[in-house]
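In full, the data:

***
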Amino acid sequence: MPMMSDKIEKLNLFDVTNIIVGTVLGTGIFITLSLTGSLVGPSSLVVWLIAGIIALIIALSFNYCVMVLPKSGGPYAFAQDTFSSLGAFMVGWSFLLFGWLSLVAITLAFLQYFEALVPDIGFLAGVGVMVSLVVFAVVTNLMGVKVTGRVINVLSLAKIVPFALLVVGGAIYLLGEPERMMSNFTPFLTGSAINFGEAVVVAFWAYTGFELATLPAGEVEEPTRTIPRAIIIGMLVVASFYFFINLVVFGALGGAGVSDAGNPLAEASKVIFAWSPELAWLMALLVGIGALLAIACSEETELLGASRLARVLAEEGMMPRALAKLSVRSGVPWVSIVLLATTALAATFLGGL
């Protein structure tokens, strides 16, 4: 009689690549672009390249770890095999705490961007929006890792559409307005060397998330081949989008415009497509919807990764054993999924972003 793990579909290269793109490309660019712009102006273009190179170097280290130790738990499994039990405990728990806090922040960010599209929705409606996001993530995660992977695929591909339209439209706009582009990129560096370093740190945060691909290694087809390839492909896709988004947004708005904008991508859309007010409004709407899709995708991937880490910690006796309990039908750690999501939702009522 086949084991339960043999019956369950596993994630393939396309799925794992989309986990990385879905996690990394999205929430970070919406939050940090104006921050790096306020620190160093148009030289953010260089900042995001440097941060991307640093992230890629770390990603390659994760690639090596996966090839040596293709186990679920990612950073915890690597630390357990390399360091002491105390070191593994510290890595596992701090990483789980980071994942849980990310779920809290993602839920709050989803409400913030929803209110940007639908202002003055009221407290109860806002609660309903956050609950809907969490319920959707929980239900799809409980249905099995392959279902979660398909949901991430759809959300990841859908959210790329507004980004791609913005980049293509922005490139055409800037080629037709070279003087404006030169003006908006002058002066190129507006901050100090210390500001530049701070901006690199801020931009690097927007690249984090690739490590989530290592957490469900036991549920991936040929993890020693699939995960390293997915990390490299995913990070190159993300870095390319980040570079060109910075190029067109700063080219359209300039350093001051980016730092003052609450949603630089939406504001850049209005400028780039100003020749057609209807199209400018539509693009701003698409960027807003893209933000919601990106944040929802991050919720899916964070819950997927954090629940697998909680399961591994529980199996090692570092958390209550119940968190390792698997669904008979789908093989997912259902107690971990429900507990992490509901407690993160409860924490959203304790403060803001």
Notes: Residues 1-6 have pLDDT under 50 and may be disordered. The CA atoms of residues 42 and 250 lie 6 Å apart.
